[in-house]
Amino acid sequence: MCALGSTAVAAPVHLTEAWLTVESPAVLHQIESEHRIVIDHGRVDRADGAIEQRILGTAEALEGLRTAGFEWVIRRSPRVESDGGYSSPSEGDTALRALVATSPRAGIVQMGSSSEGRPLLAAWFGQPPGSGSPDVRVLGAHHGDEWSSFEVALDIAELLATEDGTRTEVTALLDARTVWVAPYINPDGVVYGTRHNANDVDLNRNYDFHWSSSAYLSGPAPFSESETRAVRAHALTTAPPLSLSLHSGATNAGYVWNYSLTDVPERPSIAALADGYADLCTDPDFWVTNGAEWYRTWGDTNDWSHGRYGGMDFTIELTLDKAPPSSQIPTYTAHHREAVLGFLTTPLTLSGQVTDSSGNGLRSELQLMRNGQAASRPFLTDLDGRFARHTELDGTELVVRAPGYGTAQVQPGMALDIAIHADTLSTELSGPGRLPAAGGRVELDAPDGAATLSQPGHASLSIPIREGLFTVPELAGGAWTLTDAAGQVYPRMLLVEDSGPASRSRSAVEDGELVFEGINFTEGSQVWALDGDSRLWVDVELLSETSTEIVADAANFAATGDFLTLTNGTWLAHTRRTEGPDPKDTGAPADSGDTGETGIAGDSAADTGPDEPVRPACGCANSPAPWPALGFLALLAIRRRRS
């Protein structure tokens, strides 16, 4: 057998897959904690009452199990290899580009880059990003040895590309929504045939909601990996109400929570969505489970999506074998095709837009309440204040909040127009727009005391302000809100740059054009103006983009706007000029994160701060360089396998 893609090099950590026989599920949790064994997907309930469970562990850990008296057998090698019929990441990317090129309404965005620099491509189908239509999402290959996951994702991309305009259900879906398909979240792991990425981190244990340092291969900190940071950045600009995370090694649909047996408020609705998927799946062995009732994980995609922005995110285990023989690809893609399509077309029973008093769309947080109790997790609007959700509405009221604005309570329904008015948005606070790197000190006209930094999708952080100064903590990139000790909200958002694959060397607004110059910019970049002191995100038209320069039309915002761009999974910032020097760009410290509802998790800023407090400003831009030739139309490598 030949290795998938380029020459496969064994990754440093070798996890052997085995099947363990135990008497009860309780024994599994004991084994996991005492022997450093990963309880993996796959379980067989035997007629005699015993359980056969797939596990992963080092040779030393497995030997420790045997010494402790447990029985296990090895049924496969620790590294998956291809029989020649699976699509390597480069082949899959070529196929995805070819599908987009021939689709009537589709595009490609590079969400970010892997640890070894491979692109993380996401194709969109239907309504263009930022159009205000709901975003729904399919992610494949968080685990690099689960190959049926990327094949099913590619099959769904082909379905959307080839049957738009010819099949009623597909056309109706793409008329109403933006569908994102990202087949390879862990392309390095796929190339190596390993579960984890090139840094020996299990990406599906690296998200910051109830992340645990004791989970096996969870990484040095939440979001320590470029792959999970790319998913985070993309998700928090789209806030998809519905999403699927495709895996293999079992055959079931799993729903939140995965870390706890505590029910989520919307468990009946969420469980019904999983049941609906199972009803459409034609695999006779497919079943439904709550994640934690099957086995517990910490820091996974589903829990983060639901816990941080209220998305209804499901794990779909596609095949009992993680990489079945490629001859079975037509069978299992056919099993799941209609189930995925049915899920993506789930009716959204609650929708509308939140605006300020002038009618401008305002990013907000919403929550359904029933008799004073939470009937949903808090969920986000998109950047323009639009929202859509599948939920039960009987007996509920919708509570709407945004930093600096009053709270609104309305009866939930369809096509709501909800206006909220500035309340605690200060007209007196002043300070910088762009923050220096963690450890830098910033002067702010705010009273002494405990202030709060917050950003949708993250846990909030309390920071002390003393004598008008605060020290910048480690923060994820993007726009942050500061609320002072008196409850007043700083009107301008505080912008933080990432230390991601891309970096900015200079930026400027010249002749009405915003120019970012740097390296490793990628296709599908987006630019926003955070206009004036009203906290509004406004899409800025992209005029051109190359690997070293992004140019946008800033004529309407040159005097009042701060700017953010997202490119290659990296947030870059340009602020209107203020007093003080422009800090130099340098590398940033590593991420840090919380394990649940308190603290902060994320990237550090990209600017260093001098010893004295600063008010950051920006420089100027130089000339662009062309994109590398893509050449993906030369081969239509769409080797779809239909039965």
Protein model, in words:
19% of the residues lie in helices and 27% in strands. It is an alpha+beta fold. The strands form eight sheets. An eight-stranded mixed β-sheet has the order 5-6-8-7-9-12-10-11, with helices on both faces. Strands 14, 15, 16, 18 and 19 form a five-stranded antiparallel β-sheet that branches. A four-stranded antiparallel β-sheet has the order 2-3-1-4.
Name the descriptors:
643 residues, alpha+beta, 8-stranded mixed sheet, 5-stranded antiparallel sheet, 19% helix
Given helix and strand content, the structural type is alpha+beta
Amount of beta strand: 25-35%
Kindly provide the radius of gyration, computed on alpha-carbon positions and rounded to a whole number of angstroms: 24 Å
Mean pLDDT: 85
Low-confidence stretches: 1-12, 578-643
The beta-strand count equals 34
**Sequence of strands across the biggest β-sheet:** 5-6-8-7-9-12-10-11
- Overall outline: globular
**Major sheet:** 8 strands, mixed
Summed up, the helix count is 11
The termini sit apart by 24 Å
What is the share of helical residues?
A: 10-25%
